[in-house]
Amino acid sequence: MQKHPPAADPARPPDLSALPALPGLPDLSGLTGLPDLSVLFAPPAPADPADPPAPAAPPAPPVPSRAALLARLRGGPGGPGTSTLRIRPVLPPPAPAVVPAPTPAAVQAPTAPGRSRGNPAVPELYCPPPQRDDPALGDAVEDRLIAWAEETGIYAGRLDEVRALSIGRYTMLTYAHVEDPDRLLAPAKCTLAQWATDDYYCDDESAGAVPLRIATHLSQALAAIDPAHLPARYAPLLEQAMCADPVLVALRSSTEHLSRYATRSQLTRYRHEMAALFSGYTAEAGWRVSGRTPPVWEFLAVRQDNSFIPTMVMLDPAGGYELPVEAYADPRVRGAVLKAASASVIVNDLYSMHREDESAAVNYNLPALIEAEEGCSRAEAVRRSAGLHDELVHAFEEESALLSAAGFPPLIRFLADVWAWLGGNLEWHRTTARYHPAGRAPAQDSGPAQDRTQRPTHGPEQGPTHGGTPA
């Protein structure tokens, strides 16, 4: 008689709907705005008495405690089956940050673990600390990325501004479990190509952006990622267009680099998320062309697509493993990951809001939209935006801990990588010169009298924007 259930097979996702209700976890339905996930784990319907008796099920394994599940999320997978995943050793805890002595006006950093350090312009956000900060590795990726950008022709004459953005550092921080510079270079190239698409096609009219042609340009951009197959007569014309546009060259080249490490399924997933990103770009362009200010709920719905999700879905190919499509597409997994993606762009809105206030162009930024819709002060709108961020991160943390109970190593690894990605994303926003120019103090709060629904233009003097966001 089998005394223990078989170990999870890394190649076959488990049926997550079979997960029992776990004691010790909070009732997720009690979190404001979150669905009642308990219905997902309801017991099966009673069997028909006429059916033959089912064989006796093996004894259920001990249910891990909530603390054990969260530790598994934060530290990566362990146990049977994990040796096939090529997982690097768990990183040691980061050294405590050196924080200057507080002043009366300074925001005090909370003592609770998992929160970011204080910043005068942004409230403390619930988020993990960065799991790695390796400047040498970030510089190595940066050097290769700048050389590639020069080859493709994007941001010609502005590469010093691209280097100042520190996308190599951004990739090093967010892909905290990847140490190979070439593997890090793949998502770094894809990220810079996304930013270039936003700049050249959507934001920067000095670089050729035409509002009424945004949808057409983005359709061509998608063809560079997911090749279009035209009749023989027209295929050479498409190829000529692909080679003549630096953005299309960069999109195609970055996807080819990603394909060195990604399976066909992973590439299809990346292309799907890029199509959703371009849909978000188009929606925002519609607001700008029509001069319409969207309600906050509509903005947040579009932001779920117009987010960092294309960057996040490269975590497993860069890390040398694969989260199977059946697991990624599971509604519980996808819901948790999309919450993390939405939280990450709220970080971007919070850190970019004061920079955007200095522009006279139309912008769509969460604190500004909340301020305009609810008639509150900017300080209150910022606090509410931070609260939405924290709600989403808490939900991701709790739901991921619940999902890890299935014991499926690739899923546990992926969720742990997303958790680390959130910490690296916040650290980059906290430290990049883009939001903290030398010699400039963060802007202070003022009342709601001024109209702050403004968006910056992105001329050559401003450097590239953050693709997928109004940064």
In short:
This protein has 471 residues and is mainly α. The protein has helices at 66-75, 135-152, 159-165, 167-174, 181-203, 214-225, 235-244, 246-258, 264-290, 296-305, 309-312, 315-319, 325-328, 331-357, 366-374, 378-403, 409-431. Helices cover 50% and strands 0% of the residues.
List the helices and strands and how they pair.
Blueprint: H1 66-75, H2 135-152, H3 159-165, H4 167-174, H5 181-203, H6 214-225, H7 235-244, H8 246-258, H9 264-290, H10 296-305, H11 309-312, H12 315-319, H13 325-328, H14 331-357, H15 366-374, H16 378-403, H17 409-431
Helix pairs in contact: 1-16, 1-17, 2-4, 2-5, 4-5, 4-17, 5-8, 6-8, 6-9, 7-8, 9-10, 14-16, 14-17, 15-16
- Which H/E pattern describes the elements? HHHHHHHHHHHHHHHHH
- Assign the structural class, choosing from mainly alpha, mainly beta, alpha/beta, alpha+beta, or little secondary structure: mainly alpha
Tally the beta strands: 0
Q: Note the gap between the termini.
A: 60 Å
Give the percentage of residues in beta strands. Answer: under 5%
The percent range for helix content is 40-55%
**Global Rg:** 23 Å
The number of helices is 17
Largest sheet: none
Spans of at least 5 consecutive residues with low confidence = 1-6, 20-44, 76-118, 438-463, 465-471
Shape: globular
How confident overall, as mean pLDDT? 76
What labels describe this entry?
471 residues; mainly alpha; 0% strand; globular; disordered N terminus
